[in-house]
Design a protein that fits this description.
This protein has 3 domains: 64 residues; 187 residues; 83 residues, no CATH class. It has 361 residues and is of the alpha+beta class. The strands form 4 sheets. Strands 5, 6, 7, 9, 10 and 12 form a 6-stranded antiparallel β-sheet that branches. Strands 1, 2, 4, 8 and 13 form a 5-stranded antiparallel β-sheet that branches. It contains 5 helices and 18 strands. It is rod-shaped.
């Protein structure tokens, strides 16, 4: 026989061996950690939204001129608005309103917007401000535009038929309420739906540039509002961005790893459970199949009073039961180890012993 020298044996000094309990502990900690990480990633994915803001500033102003009726005093038919000049309703045929409106966004956007000029005429009680009559007119047709740049401008002149509305008011006052006041509020209405270029969801914007003109008086009073607003619109979206795709891939990988760890852990834990012995399996089979003919008792009969007859199998005892018409009694002496099945008949005790060692028979 060849002798093996110590130096001929190769030892793997780099390999590590973990005991059974250590491996289970590691897998439990790893499984728990993976579940927590996967849950956090799923929560992050569900609540992940890209955010963007659109900041914009809008400026709107108006100038008003009176288009005069024929008269012997003015050499021109258009009277420009000045601080020291007032318009008289009896001399005014119509009013020309010049709109100068601009809106500037801090980034390129997409969407459409509409523009139109609306006049809202109202006759009202000067004390209570309650309306007697109100009517809305579209002074220009609605026009639809597409956002092409970061700027939107509206530079248009709109003619208001002042003489027409003033006559309507005077007729109403003469017939129904001489003490009432009247005005027409003319405003540029800009409405749109916008979004950053990479967003699909749009949000509405609306702007008004108003000018209020009195009616039914000798002198035309004009109240203009200078519009200057700075606003911000917030956008959020759930989309298939690179970050979202990475999260989804990580979650799928983690779920696969969790399943693998769970299978390994389950195999290790199953080894902790004691295997059913032949005794346990046989006892369960007998009690399950013959439960209707077996009587469970708690005390063994006194063996001295009976002639003991040993039975080698439960099937033999079963045949004997059918012949003697006696019940089979059962008692477990030692759990998972030893049980008796017996029949009492006159002075005889027929007994079958089921032992844990019966597997080796």
């Amino acid at each position: 026989m060849k002798k093996i020298k110590e130096q001929d044996i190769n030892y793997d000094k780099t390999s590590l061996y973990f005991g059974y309990s250590i491996r289970i502990s590691i897998l439990i900690v790893l499984f728990t950690l993976l579940i927590v990480i996967c849950g956090l990633l799923m929560h992050s994915l569900i609540n992940y939204k890209e955010e963007d803001n659109i900041n914009y500033i809008e400026i709107g102003k108006t100038t008003c001129s009176a288009i005069l009726k024929e008269n012997e005093f003015y050499q021109t038919n258009i009277l420009k608005e000045k601080k020291d000049i007032k318009f008289l309703s009896s001399l005014t045929e119509s009013l020309e309103i010049d709109y100068d409106y601009k809106i500037h966004f801090d980034k390129e956007i997409k969407g459409n917007y509409t523009t139109k000029v609306i006049g809202e005429l109202s006759i009202y009680n000067p004390n209570t401000k309650s309306n007697y009559y109100i009517e809305t007119y579209e002074l220009t047709k609605e026009e639809t535009h597409q956002f092409q740049d970061t700027k939107v401008t509206y530079n248009e002149k709109v003619i208001v038929d002042y003489n027409k509305y003033n006559k309507l008011v005077n007729d109403f006052k003469n017939k129904y309420s001489k003490d009432s006041n009247a005005k027409i509020k003319v405003y540029l209405l800009v409405q749109g739906e916008i979004a950053p270029l990479e967003f699909t969801e749009t949000k509405k914007i609306e702007s008004k540039v108003p000018i209020t003109i009195s009616l039914g008086n000798k002198e035309i009073r004009i109240n203009k509002t200078y519009v200057e607003n700075i606003n911000k619109i917030e956008f959020k979206k759930q989309n298939a961005s690179i970050y979202g795709i990475i999260l989804e891939i990580l979650i799928i990988i983690l779920i696969v790893v969790i399943i693998i760890v769970f299978i390994k852990l389950n195999k290790l834990l199953s080894k902790l459970q004691p295997k059913e012995s032949y005794y346990d399996k046989e006892l369960k089979r007998i009690l399950r199949e013959y439960d209707n003919i077996i009587v469970n008792v708690s005390i063994l009969p006194e063996k001295e009073k009976y002639k003991k007859v040993v039975i080698n199998s439960f099937e033999e005892l079963l045949d004997l039961k059918n012949n003697l018409k006696e019940p089979i009694r059962y008692i477990e002496i030692s759990p998972h180890n030893k049980s008796y099945f017996f029949i009492k008949h006159n002075d005889e005790l027929f007994i079958y012993t089921l032992k844990n060692t019966s597997k080796e028979r």
